[in-house]
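Lecture notes, unit on protein representations.

Consider one protein chain, 187 amino acids long.
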Amino acid sequence: MKKLLILSLFALVIISVSCHKEAKTVPQTKTKKETQKTQETAKKESIENTVINENTMGEEKKNDFESKSVDELNKENILEDVYFEFDKSRLTPETREILKKHAKWLKEHPTVKILIEGHCDERGTEQYNLALGDRRAHAVKNYLISLGISPDRMKTISFGEMFPKVKGHNEWAWSQNRRCHFVIISK
């Protein structure tokens, strides 16, 4: 019974608010100077609000980062994998662009330490793939160092072909397995 009464009152309030008509006002004409001043004031307020919003967003991102565990950050895949050509440890232009983004993020979070995992596809011997994965991980580390990231913040390891990202025996699967994967180990 109480629920019915509350719902009825709620419906009555909604209906009365939605039926309310605003009084029409006659627009006043402004002089050119008044219009310009109003526009200038609006621009200034807009700029101030933008700066305040950007600062607030930066704080929210920082607080968001601080509140997350290392596992949660790794699940978000903040530092995306970079890929390599067959039997190569050379960084492609696309890989370099991704690593520039990683370096920027690492500079914004100077306490973060990462592990760079080198991976290979299933072709080649296990020993050869471990060495190739190691070369890939070191190529990535050295490029990040050249972008200003301290070597003390990065460790490397090679898994060779042991942990494929994609199971399969075709070119697409192999291309997904020739990579370096990033793991945040501390923040």
